[in-house]
């Protein structure tokens, strides 16, 4: 069920299950609790987890249970698209709460139509991480918003500071109006790899923006 939420979410985080993550899942979750986040999503890289996905899932399931009275823990996965990982079986994602496909707007990413075919094999919630959908609309000469609606893809606002599309969205009235009217589901993610650099103020601002637009979220 998709609806607008008052909860503060952070649905993009890396742990030591990722080659570039510095903190354990427990440290990431406890840091989120300390910053009054309501819903935390762990999204380690599929290529780092490899065959260890059942261990990953088991550990995060334990975290869900351990912290259930303090925070909602969602189990996600970030899947690369540059190119698509042939060794990843979409069935391995079936128990997850959601997956994020990353960098589909990158020149080296798989073709949009190949991606949409592949996406059909995933039965959990699916979203596009740090993807400039306006740029993609131009490149493919399509309406990405309609495509995302048709293929049930949510759109992430990634506040890590590494992706300019988010700042463009913050300052571009026209784009915000288009997204507001589209009512596509959205998520907010910090893309944290190290809790010392947790950007909670930017995270709060992005959550407020999603609330003010009135778009549904995946919560
Ligand atoms: Zn990430």
In what range is the share of β-strand residues? 15-25%
Question: How big is the Rg?
Answer: 16 Å
Helix content: 25-40%
Integer count of domains: 1
- Our count of helices gives 9
CATH class: Alpha Beta
Strand order of the largest sheet: 4-5-6-7-8
Describe the protein in words.
- The chain has 219 residues and is of the alpha/beta class.
- It has one domain (9-213): Metal-dependent hydrolases (TIM Barrel), CATH 3.20.20.
- Helix content is 38%, strand content 15%.
- It has a 5-stranded parallel β-sheet with strand order 4-5-6-7-8. Strands 1-2-3 form a 3-stranded parallel β-sheet, covered by helices on one side.
- The protein is globular, with a radius of gyration of 16 Å.
- It starts with 8 loop residues before the first strand and ends in a 6-residue tail after the last helix.
- The protein binds zinc ion (ZN).
Could you name the key traits of this structure?
219 residues, alpha/beta, TIM Barrel, five-stranded parallel sheet, three-stranded parallel sheet, 9 helices, 15% strand, binds zinc ion
């Amino acid at each position: 069920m998709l609806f607008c939420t008052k909860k503060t979410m952070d649905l993009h985080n890396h742990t030591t299950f990722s080659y570039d993550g510095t903190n354990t899942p427990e440290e990431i979750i406890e840091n989120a609790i300390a910053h009054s986040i309501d819903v935390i999503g762990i999204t380690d890289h599929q290529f780092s987890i490899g065959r260890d996905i059942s261990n990953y899932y088991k550990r995060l399931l334990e975290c869900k249970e351990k912290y259930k009275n303090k925070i909602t823990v969602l189990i996600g996965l970030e899947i690369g698209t540059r190119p698509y990982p042939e060794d990843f079986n979409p069935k391995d994602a079936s128990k997850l709460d959601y997956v994020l496909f990353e960098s589909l707007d990158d020149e080296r990413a798989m073709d949009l139509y190949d991606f949409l075919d592949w996406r059909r094999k995933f039965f959990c919630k699916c979203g596009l991480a740090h993807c400039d959908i306006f740029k993609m609309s131009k490149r493919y000469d399509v309406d990405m918003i309609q495509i995302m609606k048709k293929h049930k893809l949510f759109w992430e606002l990634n506040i890590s500071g590494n992706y300019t599309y988010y700042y463009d969205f913050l300052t571009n009235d026209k784009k915000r109006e288009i997204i507001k009217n589209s009512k596509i589901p959205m998520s907010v993610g910090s893309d944290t790899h190290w809790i010392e650099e947790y950007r909670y103020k930017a995270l709060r601002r992005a959550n407020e923006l999603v609330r003010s637009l009135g778009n549904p979220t995946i919560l």
